[in-house]
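Q: Got a minute? One more chain.
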Amino acid sequence: MCGRFTRMYTWRELWELYMLTAGPPTSNLQPRYNICPTTEIDTIVPVIDKRGVVPMRWGLVPSWWSKSLKEMRLATFNARGETVAEKPMFRDSFKKRRCLIPASGYYEWQDTSDGKQPYYFTRRDGQIITIAGLWSKWTDKATGTDLHSCTMVITEPNRIAAEVHDRMPVILEAKDFEQWERGDVKDAAALMKPAGEEVLQKWPVSKRVNSSRTSDEDATLIESV
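A: Always. Here it is, folded:
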């Protein structure tokens, strides 16, 4: 799973990597070191022949959801690549609404005799991690308000990830963006595989990140211990 990640990138880095042309920045980006499910995150969405940044709830709510948001108790912040084409929660988005989710790094937990030890993963080249995502628009029938939400697609781990956990996010390279966003389901499915062994690096970090209540502004969370 990928249940926590960070954001230290700048607007310039986003615009250069994703060649954004749809809409100007809406605000300055502040670093976030403990991004949790159900909070709002940056999502890169294709718009005709352009890309734009759309803030979305991390935890997908499918358009057909008929209950209230509070009754959405399923964990939908990750979607398994092996079943994403069949699961009712994700299959429509996989067919029609794929997106890119930028991250500076992400946390994963290893089971040890002393409890869960968190590790922090980043790219070796220092670039933004681009995670394959799906999105949806849901309308709250009680208020008529639209909610945009998203999920990260996860897959089997490569060797470096497997040392900590049995899953990892699907990490896309720049050459894969167009294929993920606009390719047919077979083209998209071909990208749902572990990242190359040379892509990521990791180190253990403080167990303070084990709590979702730990401050999102605490830069020491990513320091090696």
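A: The chain has a mean pLDDT of 94.
Q: Perfect, thanks.
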